[in-house]
Design brief:
Length: 476
């Protein structure tokens, strides 16, 4: 066999026997192993390999090293045994960490054993969910089934919507705001100060002018401030929160629309994206909750699949109007499809997990779980207040806000999300009364030691939760 090559601009023939396969082995030395000597100090703390450590623990100090297998490992099996032991210890860690998980909005109560048979397949949903590409190992039939379910929930006809299963909640926000920018290229993005950080990330990525709107004490957008800051000379792109990150506040969608209309904005001059990451799937089952529906002049809705639904990997659902998506989509000959998504490759397993859960629970199942979460959230809030601990719970929320614990180890143990002087627990379907009691009993016991000598007093968090919810010496 002869290979063609070019030497000094001339074609030359290379015989197969002249091609030394061993030449591609060990041509480059292995990269050096990072040692403790690579961690250097800085004036604000530490740097590792030049990277400054700002928040949280430095994972590199406890990372699991990747090591090269021994030459005889195929015979001894030592490497396989080592990896099995590492994974077994990691599983125990996951069990313990799941038992003490309260501060982040993930439903850890699920069983997908029936889907284990699919883990051997590389399922990739490339391109448009509604157009089958040349790549055949996909799960579009599941993806579109899930999208239809959410379209029905948010009241938009099959022929009138477009959407896809995203890789996370942030991608849903990035996509919704991008569609708004493409529909209204010179529009200004408006978002409350308590909006998820991904909204402001989108503004930076897309080089959009962004105006931050003040919030009420609840964390809900202040529509009076919104009205005062509206620029009537340019179209408006608005992020509406269906549950804020810290306080779980739900923006009043109807009041936002009313504010826009009263300010002279016709429906073709504004675009509303609803960030329903957590509560977007809970609100439809709360009686007094404002309704999120495409019968109102909204442009898109996104919800996370790994939060209330309980998917084991990050994912989400993003739905917009079909009339908007043409401004974003491009034909891709390589795929024999078109694409209007943020990511090219998308996790094809995620739609199957979502489809499986939606079929098992249905609307009635989710309604029962919502009722359980709200009931348990009120239980937690009441017990905190009975113990003299400042606490707040918004009417439509399962996020209980309370004074930040003084002990950071306690915060880490229960994986609490903190901001300033406050922390929160998000009551999800896997959070039982027994789990809340364990947390409360430990918190009350620890708290008695933090303030026992009288030198320190519980913090006043009235500025965060209001005087009526603050249990400090001044307000109780």
């Amino acid at each position: 066999m002869e290979f063609a090559a070019h030497v000094n601009g001339k074609k030359a023939g290379i015989l197969a026997e002249d091609f030394d396969l061993s030449a591609v082995v060990d041509v480059e030395p292995l990269p050096p192993v990072v040692t403790a000597d690579d961690v250097v100090g800085s004036k604000d703390g530490k740097k590792q390999n030049g990277r400054e450590i700002v928040l949280g623990r430095n994972v590199h100090t406890e990372c699991l090293e990747v090591t090269e297998p021994d030459a005889n490992d195929d015979f001894t099996g030592d490497k396989e045994a080592y990896m099995a032991s590492v994974l077994a210890r990691y599983r125990k860690t996951l069990i313990e960490r799941t038992r003490h998980h309260l501060g982040y909005p993930y439903n850890l109560d699920f069983d997908y054993g029936a889907l284990a048979q699919l883990q051997h397949f590389s399922i990739n949903n490339l391109g448009d969910p509604f157009i089958e590409s040349n790549y055949g190992v996909h799960s579009r039939q599941f993806e579109v089934g899930v999208l239809d379910w959410f379209a029905r929930l948010w009241e938009i006809e099959k022929n009138d919507y477009w959407g896809y299963i995203t890789n996370c909640g942030t991608e849903g926000n990035l996509h919704g705001i991008l569609v708004g920018r493409e529909v209204l290229p010179d529009g200004i993005l408006y978002a409350s100060r308590e909006s998820h950080y991904s909204v402001f990330k989108a503004a930076r990525m897309y080089r959009m002018e962004c105006v931050k709107i003040d919030c009420l004490m609840s964390g809900e957008i202040d529509c009076a401030d919104f009205k005062a800051k509206l620029n009537q000379d340019k179209p408006a792109i608005i992020n509406v929160n269906i549950g804020t990150t810290v306080k779980g506040a739900v923006d009043d969608l109807d009041l936002v629309i009313q504010t826009l209309e009263e300010s002279g904005f016709t429906h073709d001059r504004f675009y509303i994206h609803c960030d329903g990451a957590l509560f977007g799937l809970m609100m439809p089952f709360v009686k007094r909750a404002p309704k999120v529906t495409f019968k109102k002049p909204i442009g898109s809705v996104s919800v996370s699949g790994h939060k209330f639904v309980g998917c084991p990997m990050p994912c989400g659902v993003q739905i917009t109007r079909m009339e908007h998506i043409n401004a974003l989509s491009r034909n891709v000959e390589y795929l024999a499809s078109r694409d209007a998504t943020i990511m090219g490759s998308r996790n094809g397993h995620a739609p199957i997990f979502l489809w499986y859960t939606l079929n098992r629970k249905g609307y009635i199942g989710f309604q029962k779980e919502v009722q359980k979460c709200l009931r348990n959230a009120h239980y937690l809030k009441d017990r905190l207040r009975d113990a003299g601990i400042s606490a707040m719970l918004n009417e439509l929320s399962s996020t209980v806000v309370f004074e930040r614990p003084q002990d950071e180890e306690f915060v880490r143990r229960w994986q609490l999300a903190c901001q300033g002087n406050i922390a929160h627990v998000i009551v999800m379907p896997n959070v039982t009364i027994e789990k809340l009691d364990d947390f409360l009993n430990e918190l009350i016991e620890k708290r008695s030691t933090w303030y026992q000598d009288g030198q320190f007093q519980p913090p006043c968090i009235a500025a965060d939760v209001g005087n009526e919810n603050c249990g400090c010496a001044l307000h109780k």
